[in-house]
Specification:
Low-confidence stretches: 1-9
Strand content: 15-25%
Largest sheet: 6 strands, antiparallel
Order of helices and strands: HHEHHEEHHEEEHHHEEEH
CATH topology of the largest domain: Beta-Lactamase
Number of strands: 9
Number of domains: 2
Helix content: 40-55%
CATH class of the largest domain: Alpha Beta
Strand order of the largest sheet: 6-5-4-9-8-7
Mean pLDDT: 85
Distance between the termini: 41 Å
Structural class: alpha+beta
Length: 266
């Protein structure tokens, strides 16, 4: 048995050597390194951490930038992942797994909060609603599954923008196209709100689309601490005699739901 096991391992090693693709390995090494960073890296930092030759890293980074897998900072001296890999993942079964994991958590939230909730991911300059659960009551507001919602003037969009690197946020804003009815927002106001949201950890503000609705949104964080999705509740307050969960209660419940679905490391 040991002889056969060793033979199988040796065969795997031989196959790995036979089918080596050095250029591809370099590109994947860069992508994996950048995926673990909370801030952008210079070319020198990438070269040093990967133990590679500076000239080959330069050529590989230029190709990754040209193919839009990596973005260069406005100053041109730092690199970070773009959101292209996110976009590709949206067309792939991992999104189905995210939905499958999220739906039971969203259903528990909706039952406890007596409010609807939806999950949105970044998609080509705006957000795409990939999961939606209605509250158990007679009244409520929901966002239609498959809807594209604005990046700039929604709670989901603000959360998605706030929890990105500066380079990723610039890339998202550059890709953004206005949706129907979208309100213009000054760039300086956006940046100030991003800082506030990052410090607070969530978004809670009157809806800019509908009277009487308070948007409460939390990020679903990936291992590097960046938002991979936004979990949002369009909160509607009851004004009759029925005592429903308050917006503060709903915010706490949504925070727990988002934490359960996030992948941040301790």
């Amino acid at each position: 048995m040991n002889r056969r096991t060793l033979t199988a391992v040796d065969a795997d090693d031989n196959d790995a050597e036979r089918y080596r693709a050095p250029a591809l390995d370099k590109g994947l090494d860069i992508l994996e390194l950048l995926s673990e960073q909370k801030s952008a890296l210079t070319r020198a930092e990438i070269t040093k951490r990967l133990g590679r030759n500076a000239s080959e890293m330069y050529r590989m980074l230029e190709r990754l930038v040209a193919r839009q897998y990596v973005v260069r900072s406005p100053e041109g001296d730092r690199y970070s992942l773009s959101l292209k890999l996110y976009a590709l993942a949206h067309r792939h079964p991992p999104t189905e797994r995210l939905i499958a994991e999220a739906l039971p958590v969203m259903q528990r939230f909706a039952d406890a909060a007596e409010q609807s909730v939806h999950l949105a991911v970044y998609d080509r300059g705006n957000l795409l609603v990939i999961a939606q659960v209605d509250g158990p009551g007679t009244w409520g507001i929901s966002v239609r599954l498959g809807s594209r919602v604005g990046l700039i003037d929604t709670g989901s969009g603000r959360i998605m923008l706030a929890f990105q690197t500066d380079e990723q946020r610039e890339h998202m804003l550059a890709e953004h196209t206005k949706v129907k009815g979208e309100l213009a927002v000054d760039h300086a106001v956006l940046e100030a709100e991003h800082r506030r949201v990052r410090e607070l950890g969530y978004w809670k503000k009157d809806s800019q689309q509908t009277f009487g609705v308070v948007d409460v949104a939390f990020p679903l964080l990936g291992p590097s601490g960046q938002a991979i999705a936004a979990l949002t509740c369009p909160y509607m307050r009851r004004i009759d005699d029925y005592v429903a969960p308050s917006v503060e209660d709903v915010t706490a419940l949504l925070k727990d739901a988002a934490a359960a679905l996030s992948m941040t490391r301790d």
